[in-house]
Structures are given as structure tokens and as C-alpha cells.
Design brief:
Length: about 60
């Protein structure tokens, strides 16, 4: 499974209007952020599956 696929389905992966891009909203430490940006983190410990209904319920 590719990281982009994992992130695309994650509840913490949201669109940031200021950056005009999708970003991980989880508070990552420096090492975790580096792995995220490099795309080498294939087993994110914070991954939670999200969906349209689950995301809407969160708001």
C-alpha cells in the first residue's frame, strides 16, 4: 500500500485552504514529519480510516 493511498483515506488528511493543498493534521514530531514528507512512512501509527460520513460527523 502506498503512503498517498493511506493518507487519502485517513481522517487526519484534510484540505488546508491557506496552503491550497491537502495536509496531515496530526501533530507529528520532527522525525515523523520527515518520513511523511519523504513518503517513506508506510505504516503510520496515527492512521484512522475516514469517510465522508465519519468526517461530517466529526464537524
Amino acid at each position: 500500500m502506498r503512503v498517498s493511498t493511506i493518507c487519502g483515506d485517513c481522517v487526519y488528511y484534510d484540505y488546508d485552504g491557506d496552503l491550497e493543498a491537502f495536509v496531515c493534521t496530526m501533530d507529528l514530531d520532527e522525525d515523523e514529519m520527515e518520513r511523511f514528507l519523504k513518503g517513506t512512512n508506510t505504516a503510520c501509527p496515527f492512521y484512522r480510516p475516514g469517510g465522508d460520513y465519519r468526517t461530517a460527523a466529526k464537524q
